[in-house]
Design a protein that fits this description.
The structure is a single chain. Helices cover 29% and strands 21% of the residues. With 449 residues, the chain is of the alpha/beta class. Strand 1 and strand 2 form a beta hairpin.
């Protein structure tokens, strides 16, 4: 395990002061693509033993979608260590998230080197993935106009002017159908030929999700100031002038995750921002306005990942002089939200010979949304404090149920040992239903998300 270079013990306030300009945010600037790449590689060079840079693919115009990873063992998934991601700049002209994630990467590196115990523990116990720009092509279009003349839509889409947050397979329609027919409640199947129906940037992110067992995520946007949580798509047909709340089975948990960011943010929780009011600085996506084929709903319905969308600034492309204030307003929130990945329960699922079982299902009574174990047999289930009945199951094994009490602190470890099922009890699982369900076309609404 890589040890931090520890300085003499200092108070948290003094440690923050000691990092100077990095923490104050006074060195923040807008980064064009080449500048962003140099900044990420500079962090990797400064903290080589706890970072790794990798590309998940290329944009339409061939720019790499670079991810900066932080871990005490970069490039390796360690059992029972959760995977977390931040994604910025999905809309090319919404640039605050991009700059905050570059700055956050520098912050994590510097604070680790300074011996900050909170940051050191996060890096040692979490595998953190940071994608500062999902849409580098759109950013370049917006940046050519600059902050002074940037329009509301200029550079929003990718090089083909496709809105990437309306480009994921629509699994909500299938989920809402399954709710009525008692069908599958997690890891819904993708439609046929989906790879040919999405943009290169979207394809890269979906493949990324398939390769890493992400548990918690946030998607950074601009144009409002609010923490938005699933579902984004309404269950009801759209009626002009009316919005309807679309709760997930984990609605209380999502509300808590959104509040964690909002209340750690300097002003989001106050509610009044950008001429809008959101109670506690949070909103259900569909209650704000319905959005189809969005990324946060896709995360929840296709993977083990819980994602919210963070709207961080009224001005989508503010002048550089505004960036230090944005950094100071979001710094604690970025750390606090990341820490939420360590709540709930986690554990291993083994067979009788102590071999890990991958893709086992973990279900919680009363919450109609299951998660699965990763290839190493480990699982992570975010939960609020309380007592839960939890069942582990896998094809060919007898299910096992345990009761566990979750507290407000670190995740409780709960392991399962499954016995091989007698042959007569082995039954084929029912087919999960149709792969795709078409939904009626509705007018496209282009809000901040």
């Amino acid at each position: 395990m890589q040890q931090a270079r520890v300085l003499p013990r200092l108070s948290s306030a003094l440690l923050l002061w000691a990092t100077g300009l990095l923490v104050s945010g006074s060195d923040l600037q807008h980064h064009r693509y080449e500048d962003m790449v140099r900044a990420l590689f500079a962090v990797q060079s400064e903290c080589p033993y706890i970072t790794r840079i990798y590309s998940i693919g290329r944009s339409v115009e061939g720019r790499h979608l670079y991810v900066l990873e932080f871990s005490d063992n970069p490039g390796i998934h360690e059992a029972l260590e959760p995977e977390f991601k931040y994604v910025g700049n999905m809309h090319g002209n919404e640039v605050v998230g991009r700059e905050l994630l570059i700055k956050f990467s520098q912050f994590l590196c510097e604070e680790y080197r300074a011996g900050n115990q909170r940051i050191t523990r996060l890096i040692h116990d979490t595998r953190i993935h940071i994608l500062p720009s999902m849409n580098p092509d759109g950013y370049e279009v917006a940046a050519r106009q600059g902050p002074e003349f940037n329009g509301y839509l200029v550079g929003r889409g990718n090089a083909r002017e496709i809105d990437l947050n309306r480009n994921f397979p629509d699994l909500n329609a299938l989920m809402y159908y399954y709710e009525k027919t008692n069908g599958r409640n997690h890891h819904l199947p993708l439609p046929d030929n989906w790879e040919h129906q999405v943009e290169p940037e979207t394809l890269a992110v979906i493949k990324w999700m398939q390769n890493y067992n992400f548990i918690l995520s946030a998607n950074l946007h601009g144009g409002a100031v609010v923490a938005n949580y699933p579902f984004d798509k309404s269950r009801d047909p759209r009626i002009r002038g009316r919005t309807t709340y679309a709760a997930t089975p984990d609605d209380k948990l999502f509300r808590k995750l959104a509040r964690t960011y909002s209340y750690a943010h300097s002003w989001m929780h106050k509610g009044w921002n950008c001429g809008d009011f959101f109670d506690e600085g949070i909103t259900n996506g569909a209650s704000w306005y319905s959005l189809s084929k969005g990324m946060q709903d896709f995360n929840y319905l296709y993977t083990n990942c819980f994602e919210i969308t963070l709207e961080l600034s009224c001005d989508k492309f503010p002048p550089e002089s505004e960036l230090p204030r944005e950094w100071l307003g979001n710094r604690e929130a970025l750390v606090s939200y990341l820490e939420q990945v360590h709540h709930g329960i986690k554990g291993m699922v083994y067979d009788e010979n102590n071999n890990p079982i991958g893709n086992a299902e973990i279900s919680v009574a009363g919450i109609h949304h299951d998660v699965t174990t990763g290839v190493d047999g480990d699982y992570f289930r975010l939960l609020l404090p309380g007592t839960y009945t939890v069942t582990a199951s896998a094809p060919g094994y007898l299910p096992f149920t345990s009761t566990v009490t979750v507290g407000p602190a670190e995740a409780i470890q709960l392991h399962f040992y499954l016995k091989t099922a007698p042959k007569q009890s082995l039954k084929a699982k029912p087919h999960s239903g149709r792969k795709n369900l078409s939904s009626p076309k509705a007018p496209l609404k282009l809000g901040p998300r």
